[in-house]
Each structure stands twice: as structure tokens, then as C-alpha cells.
Design a protein that fits this description.
Blueprint lengths: L2 E3 L5 E3 L14 H36 L21 H31 L3 H15 L3 H15 L6 H25 L3 H9 L4 H30 L2 H6 L19 H8 L5 H36 L1
Antiparallel strand pairs: 1-2
Helix pairs in contact: 1-10, 2-5, 2-7, 2-9, 3-5, 4-5, 5-7, 6-7, 7-10, 9-10
Length: 305
């Protein structure tokens, strides 16, 4: 490090920022604190990434060597034999139902809270869905079992499973929708009003369009949560070794997390293989959902500019 004379005859050290006068040397204690800060940040990042890599890598290493594509086209033929076509189709139908029912209800709720609700009314509604987010999913599954499966006589089926999982996902999508709409600049609304545009038109074509990426992110999180749930589906969907028939009630539906949960403890090698296959398919399914969602977000951002 060299030093440069100042007009008053003083000398100021040249810092790590380059050969620019006027930059004092960074104290060693500050450098140490900076290094410690970044070290803690990287450690926290490692604590998040390492378990994810360990879990995903463990599933891939155990599933790939014995994976057969016949698993995708064969129904489960016993307690731990056959394939997983019935579970794959059941998971797809349940997820589609959650996106339609849970997504519509949640987006409309978030839209109402952000644009129309005011005062205490908004606070009560927001508090309600935040409380709903804290209820364990197994409790919601049991309530669905008592109210829908037994109370209404629907028995195990697709509709009870979709309704309960929709309730599980409502807080996440609603929060994402409300937050995304609140982050749209006020100038957008004011500009549309100054131009004499109808409020519904400006809300649909300007405000909502700008908030679409955040809403889709909330949908992705909700879908990932619903795909990974097991307890609510045990109470509502049941389990079936046959492909879904399309019946909404009185017909159990298979799903992938049941295979992971049950076949692992079957005590047979075929059951263990099916369990790892189901876990691998579920990982790929979630990855495809994330990639598709990111593509939609990119298109939405491009169109909103």
C-alpha cells in the first residue's frame, strides 16, 4: 500500500478500493467482522442446502439402479408389488383439483383483502387465514374425515381429498396474492383512474397482470405442499390399487405419498423398491412443477413490462 500526499501536507493511505486518494485504510477489526459475517451467511446457506442435497441424493442413488419404466404403466397389484400408475394418476388428479378449487378461492380472497376490504373487517379476515395456516394438516384431515367422509356419507374419494388439501393451501396462496397486489405501485392505479378507465378493467389488465408472478409463486408453494401431504389424504382419499375412475366420492384414490409411507415398512425388497420409486417420481414431479411455474413467471413478467 502506498500513500498519497494531500494538499495540506498530510498523507492518507490508499485502501483496497484502488489508487484513489481520500480512502482510509480499513481497520483490521472491521475486516474480521466482515469475514465473520460472510462466514456465518455461508454456514447458514450450507445448513439449508446440505440436508436437501443429502435427501435428494439418497433417494436418487437408491432408486435409479433398480428403477423400471414399467412402474409408470403398471398398477399396484398387491400390498407392495406391481407399479405405481394408480398412485401417479391419483396424485395428478388431486393436484389439479387443488389448483382449481384452492387456487380460485385463495386468489379471490387475496384480491378482496387487498383491493376492497377495509378497517377491522380486513384485520379479522387476515387473522382468520393466518390462524388456518397454523392448524396441523392432520387435524384438518380428521375434520374432513368426520365432516365429509362420515358426516356427508361421501366415503373415501377424490372430492374429500381435494377439499381438505385446498383448505391446507388457502393461507399460502391468499397471502401471496394479497402481498403481490399490495406491491403494485399506486401510480398504476392513479394513472388508470386519471385516464378514466373503469376500476374493474384497470384491476384486471394492469394491477392483476403486474402481480401475476407473485401469485404464481404462491401457487407453486401451495402445490408443493399439497403434493407432499400424507396425513390428510389417509383420512380422505384412502387408498386404491386401481386407476382413478373419475368418481368424486365413494371411490378411494391412490397417491404417491401413501406408497412412500406404507411400502417402506412392508419388510420386503419389492416394497422398498416401490417406496424409493415413489419418492423419485415425487421429486421429479415437484421439479417439473417448479420449472413450469418459472417459465410462466418469466412470460408474465415479460408481458407486464
Amino acid at each position: 500500500m502506498s500513500a498519497i500526499s494531500q494538499p495540506g501536507g498530510g498523507r492518507t493511505g490508499v485502501s483496497e478500493h484502488g489508487d484513489l486518494p481520500g480512502w482510509p485504510d480499513v481497520p483490521t477489526s472491521r475486516k474480521i467482522r466482515n469475514w465473520l459475517f460472510w462466514g456465518v451467511c455461508f454456514l447458514a446457506l450450507a445448513l439449508v442446502i446440505a440436508p436437501t442435497i443429502w435427501l435428494a441424493g439418497g433417494v436418487i442413488v437408491r432408486a435409479i439402479p433398480k428403477f423400471s419404466f414399467s412402474v409408470l404403466t403398471t398398477d399396484t397389484t398387491g400390498a407392495d408389488a406391481g407399479g405405481l400408475e394408480n398412485a401417479i394418476l391419483g396424485t395428478l388428479l388431486i393436484t389439479l383439483g387443488v389448483v382449481i378449487i384452492g387456487g380460485i378461492v385463495s386468489i379471490l380472497t387475496g384480491l378482496y383483502l387487498s383491493e376492497f376490504a377495509t378497517g377491522r373487517h380486513r384485520g379479522v379476515l387476515r387473522g382468520a387465514y393466518e390462524v388456518l395456516a397454523g392448524i396441523p394438516s392432520i387435524v384438518l384431515g380428521y375434520v374432513g374425515y368426520v365432516a365429509l367422509v362420515v358426516g356427508l356419507g361421501w366415503h373415501f374419494g377424490l372430492l374429500p381429498a381435494v377439499l381438505v388439501l385446498s383448505v391446507v393451501t388457502v393461507p399460502y396462496i391468499t397471502k401471496a396474492t394479497e402481498t403481490s397486489l399490495a406491491q403494485v405501485p399506486v401510480s398504476y392505479r392513479e394513472g388508470a383512474e386519471a385516464l378514466g378507465l373503469p376500476p374493474t378493467w384497470s384491476l384486471r389488465r394492469i394491477v392483476f397482470k403486474s402481480a401475476t408472478p407473485g401469485i404464481i409463486t404462491g401457487l407453486l408453494v401451495a402445490i408443493a405442499i399439497s403434493v407432499g401431504e400424507t396425513a390428510p389424504l389417509l383420512y380422505t382419499a384412502g387408498w386404491s390399487e386401481q386407476n382413478p375412475t373419475g368418481a368424486l366420492t365413494n371411490h378411494p384414490v391412490g397417491f404417491l405419498t401413501y406408497a412412500i409411507f406404507t411400502f417402506w415398512d412392508s419388510g420386503t425388497s419389492s416394497g422398498l423398491v416401490l417406496s424409493y420409486d415413489a419418492a423419485l417420481i415425487l421429486l421429479v414431479f415437484v421439479l417439473l412443477i417448479i420449472v413450469a411455474g418459472r417459465a410462466v413467471i418469466a412470460v408474465a413478467r415479460r408481458n407486464s413490462e
